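Retro notes (design track)

What went well: tokenization of the new backbones is finally stable.
What didn't: we kept losing track of which sequence belonged to which structure.
Fix going forward: every design gets posted as structure first, then sequence, in one message. First example under the new rule, 163 residues:
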């Protein structure tokens, strides 16, 4: 009887700690982008990270009913107003000219761009790669996070890529 009680206690403890490890998409976005996204309504949440190295893509879209997050983004100097710079354009949507093309890198399993085209908004690129001396588009691997806020739809897109 004592062994059964010990096993049940251990199972309860394991389930308790594993439940504490799950975070909401709002918490993930808030922590990663340094904004309060707690009032966001989840529109999409996909994560392909896994395996030994943790490679994959995370894509979260949150909708907001008011301008609270937008006001916070406007006050944060890490966020830039559209249009996107060349690097973020290549990472999110891809770019091409007469000499060739590069990107997009934030795509689904079929190669489709994850983030819908945004005309007006703000963006933030966080380079999490260890080699910050090399241009991000010249690297053979990527570790970055991008936040894109569409001011026309009050939608925040969070993308994280690790290769």
């Amino acid at each position: 009887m004592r062994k059964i009680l010990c096993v049940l206690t251990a199972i309860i403890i394991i389930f308790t700690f594993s439940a504490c490890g799950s975070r909401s998409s709002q918490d993930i976005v808030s922590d990663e982008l340094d904004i309060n996204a707690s009032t966001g309504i989840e529109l999409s949440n996909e994560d392909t990270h896994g395996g030994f190295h943790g490679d994959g893509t995370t894509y979260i879209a949150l909708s907001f009913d008011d301008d609270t997050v937008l006001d916070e983004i406007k006050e944060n100097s890490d966020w830039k107003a559209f249009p996107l710079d060349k690097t973020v354009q290549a990472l999110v949507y891809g770019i091409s000219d007469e000499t060739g093309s590069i990107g997009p890198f934030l795509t689904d399993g079929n190669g489709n761009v994850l983030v819908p085209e945004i005309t007006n908004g703000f963006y933030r690129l966080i380079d999490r790669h260890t080699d910050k001396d090399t241009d991000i588009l010249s690297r053979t691997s990527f570790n970055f996070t991008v936040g894109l806020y569409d001011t026309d739809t009050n939608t925040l897109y969070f993308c994280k890529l690790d290769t």
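Added context from the reviewer: The beta strands are 41-47, 56-63, 80-81, 95-97, 100-102, 121-127, 143-150, 155-162.
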